[in-house]
Structures are given as C-alpha cells and as structure tokens.
Amino acid sequence: MKHWHEEMPFTADDSLAELIFTENSLFFDIETTGFSAARTSLYLIGCAARKENLLIVDQFFAETPADESDVLHAFLDYLQNFDTIITFNGIGFDIPYLTNKCQKYKIPEPFSAYEYVDIYKMISGFRFLFALPNLKQKTVEQFIGLEREDAYNGGELIDVYKACQKNPDKKLISLLKQHNYEDVIDMPKLLSVLSYVKLFEGAFNVTSVCANESVSYDGKPCREILFSMQNIFPVPKRVSCHYEDFHLVVDTDQTTLCVRLYTGELKYFLSDYKNYWYLPEEDLAIPSSLAASIPKERRKKATAGTCYKKKNAIFVPQYQEIQKPAFRLMFKDKKSYFELSEDFVASSEMQKEYCMHVLQFICKKKL
C-alpha cells in the first residue's frame, strides 16, 4: 500500500465553505473497479481535511488487490479524527460500498456514527435550476467554473488500474492519483453550489417590494409584484427559471422573484354553506335568517360551490393558504389568492413567508 500526503495553503472561498468545512469534517472519495463491492476491488481512498489555514490531502492506494484491506484499515483509522463526513454521492455509493467491504473483512462498521453532508444528494432536487444534462461531479464543477487537469472519469481508469497490475508504471499510477486528488481538493470549492439549496431553505432577506405594470411572458399586459432579496450566501453563477405566475432570477448576491398579480373579481367561499341560501338571479349567497322573505322560486339551498362572497381587488397567487382570507376563481381550484394589502406590503415577515412558499412550490413542481 502507498500513502501519499500533501499539505497546501487553504482559504475558504466563501462564508458557506467556512461554515461547513470545519476542522472536524473530512472530505473523501473512493476509486473502485466497479459498482458491486462483492465483485470488485477498492484501490484508492482520497481525503481532504482542514487544519487552520492548511488543506491536508491524504491518499491511500492499493498497489495490488491484496492491499485492499490495508487501505480500508488506514482510512478508518484516519476517519476517527473527525465527526462529519462530506462527500459527493457518498451516501448513495461510497458509504454502502465501504460498509460491504467492512463486512467482508469483519471490521465493525463505523459510518452510522457520523454526520453527513452529501453535496450530490442536497442538490439533486435542483437540476431544473441549473439546466444541466446530469449532476456528475465534473459537470457540477464545470457549472461553477472549476477546471481540471485530469481528463478521465472513474470508469475509464478501471483499465488503467488493471494495467498497473501487469506493469506498475509510474505514469499510470500518476493518472490514478491525479484523478482522485482533483476529486478531493475540488470538493471544498464545490460547497458553493449548496448556496442555492440554502436560498430555497430561507437564507435570504427581503430588501424591497414593488408592484408595477409589465408585459407577461406571453406578451400580454399585466400587473406584477417584484420581491428583491439579499442572498445570505452568494451563489457562484446566475440562474433563472419560470413556472406559471412566477419568474425567478438568482444572481451572485441578489435574488429577484417576479409574481404575476390577478386584477379583478374573485370569490371567497364560506365553509358554513349549510347556513346559507343561494339566489341564482343575483348570484348571491345570503344567511338563512334573511332567506325567509325571499320567494322560494328565487332561492335554493347553498352548496359548497355556490356559497361565496365576491370581491374586486388586486390579488397575489398562492398554492397553500398561507395568507387569509383565500379567494378563488372556482371552488375546486387548487390555486388561491390573497388581497395585496398595505399590511402585506409593510410586513417583511409576511413577505419572506410568501417568498419561501413560492420557492418551495417551484422546487416541488420542477422535480
């Protein structure tokens, strides 16, 4: 087994990396000859840790498959110094693979005792926002502007490792080392992609709100409300998306949410419709106490769909009743609206609650 160790100056690129990548956390990535732990070999584990202003990289390399157990033991001994594991798809692949190898060598499985930050798992619901063909580590690195010297992927290096068994050439070993090395040293920089996740979790402050006249995406005149938000964690690249009434633009420090308003008449449906009568000619629901004076042929018992009060105003769309009263076009509509009021325009708390609602709705619908 070979053990490569390197130390280099390190400065966190942003506040999010500073927050997540502490001296108690460890990045790691494994290289194997396939996906099945039962039928393939583990040949390299690379780790990146932080010590004050240093990035410390350790790599454990199996020169032959017989070294696999030594590599696993060396890594597990090193892992004891940390309490948090940071990976890219480690929960989906690396950890289950290593757990199976622990079972093979009758080593107690330590992984359940750790906290995890899996970058891939955390961003997997945001592919719609990034507009990427996939979420492979190299693809995400390119998205945020990281460049690699290594031109290979893990699958292509399997044959390189097999060639090393026949002829342990230094150049071939260097290819294997370099690929894993770049995987782990780029992981701290990859943390910046989690800024989008943090934004959708509420890491922003609404700085201004304004309503104005505009032209919608389909070319029709409309009225809209614009929320300007300060990102608590800067994002590495400008992205945008559109869904129904909402248009979202996320830029370095600033996020803008544009919402198309509804101007006109909507209905507020009353829940106690059994206590009302409906007047079809007037399109009006009245309490039972007032219905006795109305001729029977002009009234009928109200239903859930005919018991409402109408209002003309400017309304804001919502898909949960976070603001009440909730108005609708039709009784069974999932989308409801609340009136754009002075209280809403003046309340940063209400505005943030609404922006959170929209972000979560967009994320859910785009999955």
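^ that was protein a. below is b, sequence first then the tokens
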Amino acid sequence: VYVDKTYNSNNKQIKNVVCMSYLTSFGYVLRDVIATSVVMYFGGYIDLIPNMIVRLIVSFVYCFVLGTVMMGMWVLAHECGHQAFSPSLIVNDTVGCVLHTILLVPYWSWKYSHGQHHANANSMEKDSVFVPRTDLRIDFKRASEPSLLKRVTALVKFLTMGWILYLLINAASSKVEKPAANKKKGERGAVNTIAASLGLETWNSHFNPFCNLWRNPGQRIGVVGSDVALLVWVWILYRLILRFGVITMTRNYFVPYIWVNVWLVIITYLQHTDLAVPKYYSEKWTWLRGALGTVDRDFGIMNVLHHHITDTHVLHHIFSQIPHYHAQEATKALLDSHLIDEYYLCDPTPWYVALWRSYTQCWYVRHDQPITWFESFKTKHF
C-alpha cells in the first residue's frame, strides 16, 4: 500500500517526547563504553585456552559479541548527526565525531549524505542509499536465477563490503548530478578547477571533499574535518598495533569492526528493502510517502543493544530529532493517533528470514511505473 494523504508534523502527542537530556544521552554512551570494556576484559583470557580449535571458536564468538556491542556506539553517533543526542550542536558534533571516527566512519561526510537520504527516502532519482536497479539494467534473455552457492557468496560480500563500498564509491546510491560541470572555469575557483583536472569531481566518495555529493563549501570543509579525524585515528591504530601486535588488534578491533559493518548493512537494508516497500519516481514521490516506506522489525535483544533503531525506524524517518530513549513511546503515540494505520509497515518475520527473503526476491523495480515495487525473475515482465 502506498501513501496517499498528508500529515501534520505538529502532532502534540509526538512533540511532547522530543525532549533531550544530557544526562540520559551521556548515560547511554557510558553504558556502551562499559559494555565494550567488559567484553574486552573477558576477551583477554582467550589466549589462556590451551586447545587451539576451542580458542579459535571462542575468538570468533568474542569478535561477534564485541562487534554487536560496538554497534550501539554507532547508533549513538548517528543520533548525534540528527541533533537528537543533545540540544547543543557542538556537543552533538563532538561526541558524534569521536564515536564515528573510532568506528572508521567519516562523521560529517556521512551526516550530510544521510541527511540527503532522509530528505529523499525511497526516491528513485534522489535517494542516497539502497536505490534498486531497474529492469533496464537486466538482460532477461541471458539472466537466470543464481545457484544457492552464488547467492550465499554474494550475500556475504554484500554484508562485509557493502558499507565500505558505499563510503568509498557511493555504491547503491542514485545517480549524482554534476552541477559543477556546467560552470565555466572562472566560476569554479582555482581549487575546484585543479580537482576537476585530476578527475576528483567524478569520484563520488565520502572521503573526497571535491566530489559532487556536497552542496556547498561548508560541507566540503566538514568532509576535510572528517578525513583529518580519521587520519589521526589511523595513526593511533598504527601505534596500538606496534604496542600490542597485529593478532591482538585484529581480534580486539578489526574483526569486530567488520561485524559492526555487517550489522549496519543488515539493519539498514531491511529497513528499506522489502517486497512491501514502494519506490517512487519524481511524479509520485513526496517526502511523507518516502518516509513511510520504511519497515519496523523486531530484532529481539538487539533492539536494546542498538538503541531501538530497528523497531522504531518509521518514527525516526518522520521525527528524526526524537532521541532513541523516547522512540518507543513516540511510536506508540503515533500509532495511537491512527494517522498512519494502513500505511505503517511492521514485519514480524525473524530478521534472518527477512534478510534471505529480501536478498533473493528483491532484485529490481520497473522503470515504467511511477510507483513501483520490488520484483524477481519469477515476476519478470517481457
């Protein structure tokens, strides 16, 4: 079902819970830091396990648990980018930059592109994440359903590399316009002219301040700030490797970091990809339609560990400045208002089942329908 109504965002039931607390927000940061420290403390005993096979199995479980806990800090940094952590922009950006940089995320760069996602959710032309391919990109005469092995292999690559490729080359985004290309050299400035001559304008990356992802000089400065913060953190990681060794750092940081990325892709993919989620072309897209084209899911204990980014995401797209500790209350108020009853998407399917279903069935959308849904080869039209 697609949305065909307007909505008053000044609903008092919701506005009453847009209340940020420094104490509460920093309390959750402390919670995640303590949880991470406790897991790492017990991880220090892994090397005492005499049996190598058991030690490897425990190491795998340890890395998974540590990465799962660290994902909570990622969500808090994301909240900072929405100005939902505290009333202070300086506090939000400082905390967000520290937390995201620790997880190798360019804070300001992603803050800007993520803002574009919220402003253009589910727009085929303008959304910045999980924009599906269309039937025009598929050769139906040659294409066939991949084997189970190919599907599993592709899914593993997607989960482990998807986030990194998005940051590096803006993968899975809509086509980025190139406004700078229409300017004369004199209007660009010396720096932009040099960047264009080096091909930097066409490298759409969260690490590149010269590319066409950024709207103004202020954003480009923010990208540089993100890069500088990351360089400082990479230097710190280098010193830690020299101090503790590659194996220790791999087990305590690099592999858990990959698990953070895996969780991030799983969560965000399932929020925006489902057979029930409509995608819109410009003639039918509205902000509200796009915002309501997201899915709430129950991830069990992960809902708590990841600050309810999983089960209150529809609300988050409508009221992005509500802090996570009010999100459940606000979601209930939104549903009790009956404003979005028939448009609210909440899937009770276990997340791992939904992940496989979406990855194997949500292959493409039609190019010739202003409102379109995911299809697979089983529903192809030719």
